[in-house]
Write a structure and sequence with these properties.
It holds the Pfam family Ammonium_transp. The protein is an all-alpha fold. The chain is built from 19 helices and four strands.
Length: 481
């Protein structure tokens, strides 16, 4: 039966319908970043033979995290304290009541919507963290090991960062600012992904040397969902449809645009041509960089952050990576270390510089917080931000390593070479496209070519008819491509 208010009405007196509506919209936008955004982006940015597996890793994580989240993960992140960095586990299924102050200690005013809204809103952040992490191990991680890794990493890594910074833990109490997940989500995903890539091992040599996207236009569609979905990512964190939310959405788009343009210009200057993949990387680093600061900085600071997020991660990826033996040794498939760990730490540090006092008072429960740019005690905030990043980095290296080493005793972390050579067809018995390449044989008897010239019954249409007219291969023959 639906919840009935104190007077028998469907809406209790504490419910702010506008805030609740925006919060559910924001949660849906963030969810769409993962499903279908990153599912599409991953499935199209990888080599054709890994399209299905890469998309499925994201799809599986989204579903698995939700069940773990409502069963025990939410309370470990936002419940009663068990340790200064961890909450007590428990189910979050009785969701009709008002979100209490204790559930969102970073918010100075009580959120006027039901607990169900908050649980779902926080779930989509947890889910996208695992999916971003997956970008480091695409193209070789054993899917069975991934299925076990997802709930374990959520439990022993993500919930620690979330409680420490958002749920009232020691970093929150100390005053470290992470507006919307620069540390909890992006630094965690980047560092844990890099660590996982080390333990899982590299792709095949030929895949590392040549790993072209199978569909650049579809990749852009996924990237577009990611960018526009970030309005909910950063705009939903004030837990109200207020001024701070509007500032966060505008700053998010400013920083992303500036970062994309700077990254593209650097590609043109140093490589002679703009890269579409590079533009997407620049977009992502801008979105990541502004995330810890989105609602506590002014627009001019968002532009500066965009310039820096489009240049510093570009340098670490395009220059430093090629000179570092450690970075070369670890096969981070999509460069998640650069786009999320580097950009996330950069954004957190810049938050310590540019956090504006009035905006901090609107969002944070501790008055007087400000960045070093505004003088006074602002220098301490910059140091706090660095310490917060250090904790998230250290915890994720250790926790991720332990989890993977435990899994390795039971399930191999890396697929066997026989599967790596074939890809999706060997792992799932499915392929992304009814196309052929990479030495595969196209069997006419299996793929429905007609031996007449009308093209009727031929799913490949005019293109196939043209080939038949050129060679008239016999039914059942194979063509090597």
């Amino acid at each position: 039966m639906a919840y009935q208010g104190v007077n028998g009405t469907a809406s209790p007196p504490w419910l702010n319908k506008g805030d609740n509506a925006w919060q559910m919209v924001a949660a849906t936008l963030v969810g769409m970043q993962s499903m279908p955004g990153l599912v599409i982006l991953y499935g199209s940015i990888v080599k054709k033979k890994w399209a299905v597996n890469s998309a499925f890793m994201a799809l599986y994580a989204f579903a698995a995290v939700l069940i773990c989240w409502v069963t025990w993960g939410y309370k470990m992140s936002f419940g009663n304290q068990l340790l200064p960095l961890w909450g007590k586990a428990g189910p979050a299924l009785d969701q009709y009541y008002l979100v209490g102050q204790a559930a969102i200690p970073a918010e100075p005013a009580t959120a006027l919507f039901p607990m169900a809204t908050m649980v779902y809103f926080q779930f989509v952040f947890a889910a996208i963290t695992l999916i971003l992490l997956a970008g480091s191990v695409l193209g070789r991680m054993n899917i069975k090991a991934w299925m076990v890794f997802v709930p374990l990493w959520l439990t022993f890594s993500y919930t620690v960062g979330a409680f420490s910074l958002w749920g009232g833990g020691f970093l929150f109490q100390w005053g470290v600012i992470d507006y919307s997940g620069g540390y909890v989500i992006h630094v965690s995903a980047g560092i844990a992904g890099f660590t996982a890539a080390y333990w899982v091992g590299p792709r095949l040599k030929q895949d590392r040397e040549r790993f072209p996207p199978n569909n650049v236009l579809l990749m852009l569609a996924g990237a577009g969902l990611l960018w526009l979905g970030w309005a909910g990512f950063n705009g939903g964190d004030p837990f109200a449809a207020n001024i701070d939310s509007s500032m966060a959405v505008l700053n998010t788009n400013i920083c992303a645009a500036a970062s994309l343009l700077v990254w593209t210009c650097l590609d043109v200057i140093f490589f002679g041509k703009p890269s579409v993949i590079g533009a997407v990387q620049g977009m992502i680093t801008g979105l990541v960089c502004i995330t810890p600061a989105a609602g506590v900085v002014q627009g001019w600071a968002a532009i500066i952050m965009g310039v820096l997020s489009g240049s510093i991660p570009w340098f670490t990826m395009m220059v430093l990576h090629k000179k570092s033996k450690l970075l070369q040794m670890v096969d981070d498939t999509l460069g998640v270390f650069h786009t999320h760990a580097v950009a996330g730490v950069l954004g957190g540090a810049l938050t310590g510089l540019f956090a504006e006092p009035v905006l901090c008072d609107l969002y944070l429960s501790s008055p007087g917080t400000k960045g070093a740019f505004y003088g006074g005690s602002g220098g301490k905030q910059f140091l706090k931000q660095l310490v917060g990043a250090g904790f998230i980095i250290g915890w994720n290296v250790v926790a991720t390593s332990i989890i993977l080493l435990v899994i390795r005793f039971v399930i191999p972390l890396r697929m066997p070479d026989e599967q790596l050579l074939i890809g999706d067809d060997a792992v799932h018995g499915e392929e992304a496209y009814a196309l052929w390449g990479d030495g595969e044989k196209y069997d006419i008897s299996k793929h429905g070519w007609s031996d007449d010239t009308t093209g009727h019954g031929d799913v490949t249409g005019q293109g196939a008819r043209s080939i038949i007219e050129l060679g008239k291969p016999a039914r059942g023959a194979t063509i090597e491509l």
